[in-house]
């Protein structure tokens, strides 16, 4: 006796509700600012160690950058010469915007944090740039760009969702049942 024929089962209708669709993390990129001449560099991968907890900037005719990700100093790109500045971020503090000036090199960098602190480095020479994430609540994850023997020739900022609950909430849908006011 042959097996009974299988009848196709009708597919259940798929319903979508905007309130049920989870918010997806949006990564964004700002840049590259500068001439972008020389050898490329990227701190991609270093950001997996954790959030940026400190950074160093050397002031010379151009800027050199070094970051500390969750307690580990990364490689320096550019030439470590001249006066350097070291900034240690407070617990929970993250970089939310970077502005500056560029031409052949990056001549000035201005870092803004979620704690309202601003750090100025370098000289205001060249064309202005301003880098911010596309999504509110995203913060600086890492930097990439170009350098040569004399300094940083190009810089781009990569933004990611904050690891802090207070900043994450900007990019999330409020939970049902929570009301404010």
From TrEMBL:
Q: Which InterPro entries match?
A: Jacalin-like_lectin_dom, Jacalin-like_lectin_dom_sf, PolyBind_ProtTraffic
For this chain, one GO molecular function annotation is: carbohydrate binding
Against Gene3D superfamilies, the record matches this protein to:
Jacalin-like lectin domain (2.100.10.30)
Which SMART domains does this chain map to? Jacalin
Q: Which domain of life is it from?
A: Eukaryota
Keywords (A to Z) from UniProt: Lectin, Signal
The portions of this protein that span the membrane are none
Q: Does the keyword Signal apply?
A: yes
Q: Where is the Jacalin-type lectin domain?
A: 27-161
What Pfam families would the database entry show? Answer: Jacalin (PF01419)
**PROSITE patterns assigned to the protein according to its UniProt record, in alphabetical order:** JACALIN_LECTIN
Q: Which PANTHER family match?
A: OS11G0524900 PROTEIN, ZYMOGEN GRANULE MEMBRANE PROTEIN 16-LIKE
* Name by which UniProt lists this protein: Jacalin-type lectin domain-containing protein
